[in-house]
Specification:
This protein is an alpha+beta fold. The chain has a domain of 83 residues: Ubiquitin-like (UB roll). The chain is built from four helices and five strands, in the order ββαβββααα. Strands 2-1-5-3-4 form a five-stranded mixed β-sheet, sandwiched between helices.
Length: 134
Amino acid sequence: MSDEQVKIEVDGREIDARKGAMLIEATDAAGIYIPRFCYHKHLSVAANCRMCLVEVEKAPKPMPACATPVMDGMKVFTRSQKAIAAQHATMEFLLINHPLDCPICDQGGECELQDLAMGYGGDVSQFTERKRVV
C-alpha cells in the first residue's frame, strides 16, 4: 500500500482506497453499490438527495457517502439497520412530490426513482400532504 492509499472496511470487506477520495468513489471502484441520485463522478459534490446515506463507525448519524472522505481504518456499513432506515426515510421523503406512476417516466421506459423505490422505499407513505403539481 502506497502513501496515497488508505485501507477501509465496507460491510466487513477490506478495500484499498485513494487517500482523499469520497467514500462513494471507493465503493464504486470496489464494486460495492450505494444508491444515489445526485452524485456523478464528473460533477462537484452536492449531497442533495441524501440517498447515499451510510453508517460510519463512531459517527453520530448516517453520513452521505458522496461527501464523506475516506480515512485510514474507517469502518462503513451500507446495509446496516441504521443505513437502510435512513435510505428508506429518504426515499419516502422524495416520493412526497413524485408519483411512482409518472406518465413521463413510463413513456421514457426508464426511471431511476421508480427502480430505487422498489428496493428502498415502497408505495405507502407516512406523509399525508398532497403532491405538489408542477
